[in-house]
UniProtKB/TrEMBL annotation:
Keywords for the protein's UniProt record, in alphabetical order: DNA-binding, Phosphoprotein
Designated name of the protein: Response regulator transcription factor
Signal peptide residue numbers: none
Species the sequence originates in: Actinomadura syzygii
Phosphoprotein as UniProt keyword: yes
């Protein structure tokens, strides 16, 4: 019997998944959580074979939760579900050691097969997500520009960013100007959105 942990902040979706997986003779749901920051504690307690994680959750997103699981409970295989195939998510998933990456729109039998595959040590990737990642551009930002934009996205002003990164305020403004130009963005907020969706932040 393959033990499964489900993490999704939408109760209806999570309940539907639990119900569908409960129909499979070799799968059993041993824990359900609705926040990413509850995944690790639930996994410590329930000791699942596979954690099925939604990408977008409060507290901690599914990819950060997957990385935490890998660090503390590497025996738990992770399969991530997403409603949208952002290329950056796939790259982060691979870095986090995720073994499966499927769209939420996948048929139930595909999800069940994916759980079995990752439990057996295999990997599963929705082909549509692979194509999206393949077609995506590489990150045009330098590491320093990324640091500056990340802090700007958190709401920090140029002077605060300068203090935190040991730069001058003028250098910070120059970096932000370069970032906006490179991403063909309207402003720094738009640049943060573009970079976030691409998985560069």
């Amino acid at each position: 019997m393959i033990k499964v942990l489900l993490a999704d902040d939408h109760h209806v979706v999570r309940s539907a998944l639990a119900g569908l997986l409960g129909l499979e003779p070799d799968l059993t749901v041993v824990a359900e959580v609705d926040r990413g920051d509850e995944v690790l504690a639930a996994a410590r307690s329930a000791r699942p074979d596979v954690a099925v994680l939604d990408v977008d959750m409060p507290g901690l997103d599914g990819l950060a939760a997957a990385a935490a699981l890998r660090a503390e409970l590497p025996e738990v295989a992770t399969l991530v579900l997403t409603g949208h195939g952002k290329p950056g998510h796939l790259r982060r998933a691979l870095t986090a050691g995720v073994r499966g990456f499927l769209l939420k729109t996948a048929p139930p039998e595909e999800l069940a097969a994916g759980i079995r595959a990752v439990a057996a040590g295999g990997r599963v990737l929705d082909p549509r997500l692979a194509l999206t990642a393949w077609d995506s551009a590489d990150n045009p930002l330098t590491p320093r520009e990324t640091d500056v934009l990340r802090l700007a996205a958190e709401g920090a002003e140029a002077t605060e960013i300068a203090a935190r990164l040991h730069l001058s305020a003028g250098t910070v403004r120059n970096h932000l100007t370069a970032v906006v130009a490179k991403l063909n963005a309207r402003n720094r907020t738009d640049a943060a959105r573009i970079a976030g969706e691409a998985g560069w932040l």
